[in-house]
TrEMBL record:
Official protein name in the record: DUF397 domain-containing protein
InterPro entries noted in UniProt: DUF397 (IPR007278)
Residue ranges constituting the DUF397 domain according to the UniProt record: 4-56
Domain of life: Bacteria
Pfam family, one: DUF397
Length: 64
């Protein structure tokens, strides 16, 4: 089964390779950077949801 990667329509750059891509496969969420597709992070829906909730709540705003 081929993995169907998805990326945001807000992806930037002339070639569209400046983004994070997501896919779901065998009950896992897969993430990769489009400009380095050989590195894939595996996680669960629950862990990704917890991370995204933290981003929305500003938990990571002081990292930069």
């Amino acid at each position: 089964m081929e993995i169907q990667w998805r990326k945001s329509t807000k992806s930037s750059g002339p070639d569209g390779n400046n983004c994070l891509e997501l896919a779901e496969h065998d009950g896992e969420i897969l993430m990769r950077e489009s400009d380095n597709p050989g590195v894939v992070i595996h996680t669960t829906r629950a862990k990704l949801r917890a991370f995204l909730d933290g981003v929305k709540e500003g938990e990571f705003d002081n990292l930069a």
